[in-house]
Amino acid sequence: MKPEDYAATSATGEAERQSLNLAESRGRPPLIERRSADRRAGRQLPASILTPPTPPPAPHLDDYRNIVGQSTLDALRFLAHELRGKTIKMVNSTAVGGGVAEMLNRLVPLLSELEVAAHWDVITGGNDFFEVTKAFHNALHGAPYELTKAAQEIFLMYNEQNRERMKFEEGLVVIHDPQPVGLIRSRQHTSASWVWRCHLDLSNPDARVWEFFRPMIEHYDAAIFSSQSFARQLPIPQYLFYPCIDPLSEKNKDLPDFQVQRVCDDFGIDRSRPIVTQVSRFDRLKDPVGVVQAYKLAKKYVDCQLVLAGGGASDDPEGTMVLEEVKDAAGNDPDILILDLPPWCALEINAIQRASTIIVQKSLKEGFGLTVTEALWKGKPTIAGAVGGIPNQIIHKLTGVLVHSVEGCAFQIRYLLTHPEFARTIGINGREHVTENFLMTANVKRWLLLFRVLEERKARRAKAA
Amino acid sequence: MAGAARPPVRRPAKPFYFNTSEHLLRIESQRATNLSELLEALRACPEDSVFQHTFRTLQEHHFIRQGFSNDFAHWSLSACNEPALAEQLASVDVREFTAVEGLRRRMVAIIDEFLENHPRSGSRPAYEPFYFCATDLVVLPTPFAPDTLGGFLDGLNQVSVHSIHHHFIEARLRLHRMSNDFSNWLEQQVALTEAADAIERIDIYTNTTEGVQLQIARIVAQAMNQESDR
């Protein structure tokens, strides 16, 4: 089928659902499948989003001045000055993809710019190792798992191989997530402080898998979790480090209105009418069908459009099923736009979020919920499920609105659309909350503070000895 | 006229060192799933925790003008649906205390009395647990150390809200008296007693910290103008 045939197919009304599947259309001009009556039918999208854009250069500390203020940069520089010449090693299991790598890609250069040199090492392993660690990851999240001796041996063997390969000459060693946790055996040969940064929710882990990890974790000097509710009872100090977003990334940087308008035009989003948006993978835990139901309940009272923008449907069989369920729930409503986007469409997501009147994240289970952070950062009144780390971000009726049901979500959509002053106030508060707690600069500050606190503790121990 | 009786503004003998405090959040072992557990944990938790959930939480939410006073009040309402208790806890002004222990006793007394009057509320499960946290505090200098009233005003206008919180709210715990660093300096170093009193009377619960900062700067500016008119 030629590109023009796709448009023709759509225009003749053969597409039963309104869906834009860019991921599937990679390598050929994309289009939005629309019914013939739909004003968006057959629209061609810019070829620029078919392939990943070249990543922009990493920002420097001074680039954040207009966002966080000079006083925040002063505090960072003062903290760093006291640690100048000291070094940090970060270790995780992947150099690309995933939130941890994305965060380290920004954090490491900023620490180095502050003259607290940060080195980033990635552990290696065979397929058998990563199969085991994926199963462990799921089990630590609470999925049932039969822990075998073989799995434990594979895990420990690869950790031992990496331990022999790596040098630990820094003052602070930070191990991210469970995969490299066994490197702690090198601690006895170093004078460094060792910290375990856990990005997982350990509130309900598989007991046997947790018991396998616990003795190793107890040898660290401290552990860090992303939410109070994700932590375990441990004999070592536990710290709370919220995940963060980078306000200068493609996903979050300020956009001129013409750019927002261009993306809306490309996708056929009408900015003259209220726009309700959820950005998330097509995953049942994000409850996209619940969002469609809430929108339909709300629409009996208020005019609005619904945009469901996400990805994951093309490379995940379950995602494909969920996408179909969402299309079924959407029916023939021309005001529902479903976008299955490739992962590099950060700028487009940014523009859609900025064009939105309300942003929804009606998750049923969630990690920290960085899409909520992104929405709050854009000053958008945000409605979200009261799960995972979302209550850390949304203080009900002050920085957003928490909901527990489809009906609750529908009511809040109606309320926010008809009370724009209240919506504006929680939007402003939400952005302030993010500025204070969930930006990359706050993350840099926490690492510097932790390093300083651990150094002081080490000095006290040495003095006492 | 009252102004004529005032002693003239002195040149300060000591500069005002604007500092700020940064905090690293620790997750503590105590947690509560109902109000009775909250009471027990509040009695047993370290002072750092009481500080975190009262003084610090006010700083964390400095941008909210009304509706947030301390974590205990917020949880009583949002997780336990006890608005009367929440109102009582929210009415506690941290600036009435010069030691965390006194604040803890006040909070404990309010919850204790509430549970005596509403015994069934104690064991009713909260919608979500209360996780006790604490804070490792690090005090940092800022570039501002003025030794004139004009320089003091410049500093006030330029420091962060965290510096304001450090000098205006947390100061009581350091000074162990019902005052703040700004009023103290204005009174002792520059003899601006009225301005010092006016600053002390600013309501932190109906203002954002930024609003408090503006009010302090306005009071100092007015005092300077009055002095130049004399």
Describe this structure in words.
The complex is a heterodimer of chains A (465) and B (230). With 465 residues, chain A is α/β, with parallel strands linked by helices. Chain A is built from 16 helices and 13 strands. Chain A has two domains: 85-244 and 440-464, Rossmann fold (3-Layer(aba) Sandwich), CATH 3.40.50; 248-431, Glycogen Phosphorylase B (Rossmann fold). Chain A has helices at 3-11, 65-68, 70-82, 99-113, 127-140, 149-165, 207-217, 257-267, 288-299, 317-330, 346-355, 370-377, 390-393, 406-418, 420-437, 440-464, and strands at 19-21, 87-92, 117-122, 172-176, 193-197, 222-225, 238-240, 275-279, 305-310, 336-340, 358-361, 382-385, 401-403. In chain A, the strands form two sheets. A seven-stranded parallel β-sheet of chain A has the order 1-10-9-8-11-12-13, with helices on both faces. A six-stranded parallel β-sheet of chain A has the order 3-2-4-5-6-7, covered by helices on one side. In chain A, helix 9 crosses helix 14 (406-418). The model of chain A is unreliable at 1-42 (pLDDT under 50). The relative contact order of chain B is 0.19. Chain B is mainly alpha-helical and 230 residues long. The radius of gyration of chain B is 20 Å and the shape is elongated. In chain B, 54% of the residues lie in helices and 11% in strands. Chain B folds into two domains: 21-135, no CATH class; 147-229, no CATH class. Chain B has a two-stranded antiparallel ribbon with strand order 1-2. Chain B is built from twelve helices and two strands; from the N terminus they run H-E-H-H-H-H-H-E-H-H-H-H-H-H. The chains are: A alpha/beta (465), B mainly alpha (230). The A-B interface holds A 69-72, 74-75, 78-79, 225, 228-229, 231, 233, 237-240, 386, 391, 395-399, 428-429, 432-433, 436-437, 445-446, 449-450, 452-453 and B 20, 22-27, 29, 60-64, 67-68, 74, 78, 128-129, 131, 133, 136, 138, 140-143, 158-160, 162-163.
